[in-house]
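This entry is listed as follows:

___
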Amino acid sequence: MATDDIRILISYALWGQWGEIAVEREGTARAARAELVAQHRHGEDPAPAMLTELLASMVAISAVAHALDALYGQLVTAEIRVAGPRDDKGREAHIRECLKRRFDTGKRDRGWVSRFQRLFDLRDAAVHAEVKSLPAVPHPSGVSNAGQVNADYSAEEAVEAVDLMLDVLNTCVQNPKPSDADAKAWAVDYGRAVESLTTKLRVSRDARPLVVYRG
């Protein structure tokens, strides 16, 4: 056989890379929050740290949405695409339907509905941003009022997004449908990657817990 006939095919499940980005940026958002609260407590200007928290949270939230979208891209089948929700349903509905068909998500799926909706609403608002004049609102840090965007893309929202991602990944790894051989193989192949990502998050949060200003 001629060497020209040999091809090496490589594929990537990019949800792993997006997941790493999400965890890293969520950690940056928590670190910025700690800096913000400390600066406020000692009479320094917390605005730069608040901006850092905003930027890191925007990336973390978007990365989680991208990770779940990429997970769908890896797991969806032609049959699921045809039988899935109507085209006018949001991307989050298609993702959840795919996972529900391949894994025993059970009651968790019902709990995911509003969490998925919130995540993708935030992601879409960041991607398709509109300029609006809105009243100032209390910043979740407790240090001051701030713009609505600072509350929407806060460390708390980043934590919630990453929690959802890890909840989805661990649920899928632990509960492939017995009748779905490919889903079972996926759980075996990617179980260690999900465990590693989960441990990395736990270490990061232990090292830098999310703080708020108590006065």
Summary: The first helix runs from residue 15 to 41.
